[in-house]
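Lecture notes, unit on protein representations.

Consider one protein chain, 405 amino acids long.
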Amino acid sequence: MAWYSYKAVTTEGEVIEGELEANDRRAVIERLRSQGHVPIRAEERRGAGLLRRGKARRGAGISQGAVALLTRELSMLLQSGLPLDRALSILSTLSPQGPLRRLVDRLLERVRGGASLAEALEAQGEVFPGFYSGMVRAGEAGGGLEVVLTRLAETLERAQALRESVKSALIYPILVVILAVGSLIVMMTLVIPQFRPLFEESGKALPLLTQVVIGVSDFVRDFWWALAVALVVLVVAVRRHNASPEGRLRWDRWVIGLPLVGDLLVKIEVARLARTLGTLLANQVNVLNAVSMTLGTLGNRAVGGALSEIRGRLAKGEGLALPMAEAGVFPVLAVQLIQVGEESGQLDSMLLRVAEIYDDEVKRTIDRLLALLVPVIIIVLGLVIALMIGSILMAIMSSYDLSGL
């Protein structure tokens, strides 16, 4: 996605300007309209990286877990019958000193200045997810803000729980990989070079395998800096490639095409898409605006591009399930369930059910991958070390036999 600067007119006649991240200019216009604004201008910004870093600094130190907790507490206070400004004032008092309290204070200041909560949220940059302010606006318009905040809290908490489970599950494999790489480096740079004097003193020709292992060891020991530079160059090249919308789209298409990993990433995106879209529809946001808001929550541009095309077909009066099936990106089960939801008139609840199904599927897939990954790493490491030791033993035995003759 790219960054776009926009100018629009609010329902009160006020001219506003700002920046949004979206797949294309049309998505920016749709999002502005979904917020009740009349777009005047939307142009892609150059130097979007600086803009992104600036907004990130404003929300620095505020995790999505903190946003979920803040949402839950605000919904509870509103359900107790407190007015919005009083609830925000209490949250400011309860929040610890730091970025979170400053965020609540900014919201309180804007609300007391006459802005709605949705308008106050939009002014905070990237602290809140893209669909957050849209749902709050719908809740304020329908008089059910506390209900909307409760649903938002549940959505954010489930997303946070999924992220934490993925992070926790990856700790052990990452440690195994680090230990494996460290073991290989020690073998190559410290152990194998100790045998070189022995082989040179024998004056005998070494087996081919031993020559290869010693050659690799010499290269790693003498040119480790070149390997480090090559790794840095590769990382920089990939980042520069992904900095452009076209490059990022190619990368994301390649990633979701990978065996095992690609399927997992698609399931994660489908779970996020279904939960966001279902929550928006459950709060009376029309399907076209809901899809526009959901676009901003997707991390994979290939999936986001497919959803953007679906949005175009929705604007022409088509349904949701058929374009999703023809996109060729979304799982068959998800498409079939969404089709059932459309036919029964319960699309919102079916989307939330799809999100639950794929959240569970993501956890099971991660467990299966980790159960496979760790033994594979250990086996590969054992084979490589066995190969190194075997090559050394072959050379020692060869030298011993030849010297005996």
